[in-house]
Design a protein that fits this description.
Length: 135
């Protein structure tokens, strides 16, 4: 089964993303920091997508991304960087310098998250999202 790694030190954020993506057919593994994410990635096959927060304890999102882009088996996995604060670099600069695929500012809607995940993994838009009354 395809899976997504979600890494954020705010439990309510990982839970929101997990519930949203599971509802749309994804297996989700969550972690509270970059070190825990690396431990999961050492034990699992590569995910289809990694969503990581910018600010986390032990190993922040930028450190995690740099490490992931050095590993051949993870180099091409799409990465979404979440942040609640303004960054000094633009999304385009981060894409070039770190190899992220998208920058997503908090707060975001579940609809945004599902659309972004479907786009980055090239899945067709979830039928639930196509319904007028979805989220």
């Amino acid at each position: 089964m395809s899976w997504v790694l979600v890494c954020d030190d705010q439990a309510h954020m990982t839970r929101l993303i997990e519930l949203t993506l599971v509802r749309h057919g994804w297996k989700v593994i969550t972690c509270a920091d970059g070190v825990a994410a690396l431990e999961v990635l050492d034990q699992e096959p590569p995910p289809q997508l990694i969503i990581t927060d910018f600010q986390m304890p032990r190993l922040n999102g930028l450190g995690l991304i740099r490490y992931l882009r050095e590993r051949p088996e993870l180099r091409n996995v799409p990465i979404v960087l979440l942040t609640a604060r303004g960054l000094e670099l633009s999304e385009q600069q981060l894409q070039v310098s770190l190899g992220i695929n998208r920058l997503l500012m908090k707060p975001f809607s579940p609809r945004q998250m599902v659309s972004l995940v479907d786009d980055l993994t090239r899945r067709p838009v979830s039928p639930r999202m196509a319904c007028a009354g979805a989220l």
